[in-house]
Write a structure and sequence with these properties.
By secondary structure, the chain is mainly alpha-helical. Helices cover about 35% and strands about 5% of the residues. The chain has 7 helices and 5 strands. The chain has helices at about 55-60, 70-75, 80-85, 100-105, 135-145, 165-210, 220-240; strands at about 75-80, 95, 115-120, 130, 135. A 3-stranded parallel β-sheet has the order 1-3-5. A two-stranded parallel ribbon has the order 2-4. It is elongated, with a radius of gyration of 52 Å.
Amino acid sequence: MKIHQLEKSTWLKDKARRRGRWNGTGTGNYSGRGLKGQKARSWHSMKPFFEGWQTSIVQRLPKARGFTRYYKLVKDVVIVNLGALDADPRVNDAMEINKQVLKDLGYIKSIKAFVKLLWHGDYAKHLTFTDIDAFSASAKIKIDKPGTVHSLLKKAPIKIVKDSKSKVWKLKVKTLVEKQTSKKIQADNKVQADKKVVAKKAAIKEEKSVKKIVVKKTPVKKEAVTAVSKKATVKKETVAKKPTAKKPVTKKTP
């Protein structure tokens, strides 16, 4: 093999920089090494993870068994809205929705994802959901009664002075809204229970009124009454006509 027969390797795309060949090479007087210092010397060598004498990131990371990264501790929740499913023309009324269907429609990327269903927008379809991991409280109410306006879903305005971006503010808003919704749900449940009790009492009263036996008075004939009265008078007369026993007369001796 001769020199002119050599071919350039496929992985070599750019020419190597030739240091110290003056201004014609384009690197200038200092050959791209800067002004003096450790990195400007010909004998310079440095470890790949050297960070200027500070503790490198390799040494700072924990290496003990049982250590888990923070992103593995957080659960990734994929949110799907009822309003989006209702507006989607591909979703028919009374259709069964599961993770496979959501993946086919493009709402989630994987069947293994943790899916939570939220209420947002109008919902009038009667869909059935299987294999869904979590539902919000408002979504449950909307699924039970689709196409109706629920007063529970309207969040009352809450005034808090603190910054809206802070976590404390968000937690307070969340707890207050949850309390309001739970109170309204309890009140509605109580009203329904009272209505059931009233209906039950009314049903019991109706049953009692049906079970009552109506006793009709039979008219007594006048002839029978006169006969009974005659018998009574005869008895009285017989009792009066009985002879009374005379008392013996005792003579007084002088």
